[in-house]
Amino acid sequence: MTMSGVALAGMSIPGFAAALAPGRDIAPSSLFSVVYDNGFPASAAFGAAAGQHGYATHDIDGDVTEFWMNHLAARWRHEPVAIAGLTHASALFVLERMGWDHGLRVVFRAQHRSQGNGRIEHQLAGPAAMLNAFEQAASEHPGLGACVAGMLARCYRPEPAPSALAIPARPRPGQDAAPDPAPLVSWVIAPRPSSASARNAFATVERIV
To answer: What average pLDDT does this structure show over 188-200?
Structure first.
């Protein structure tokens, strides 16, 4: 992926950015599950790549109901653990609102919109350290799924016991896909900061790279 012509906007959370500082591969927190949708090739590739990184993965197949009813609801009642995904925006919409009742918020969000001819525009918002991790992963992985999985691997470790569960992309030769009217969204839903100072001291970060 090339790294030109995209604005990155995010928030720097005290303590969180330090945990993701250069030289550390993962943060102290872990992911309960990584969500993907096999109906989208990039999302399916993301699920496969995330599995290779050791994450528990779950294919929602266009509907979060089974994942929520059989896996996530009971876990969030017990503990507000983090989850991540690369899905259609409607899946994030549902999971985000369910998370509100358990003290969780979307801490990272990126919209990935196809521009045709194999190019993808990424609009990112989140902690500055996660934006840094995305940029580094984007420089190493031409595919969207592997890129997002690579970002997660720099920021979160898998749970010890797996549960059941704009940056334009480098154009690919011969690929001339029409722009996707329904862009995919990558996201992380995690517990909100526990202290008032952490919640209130968000410094906005904007970059054009």
So the answer is: 65
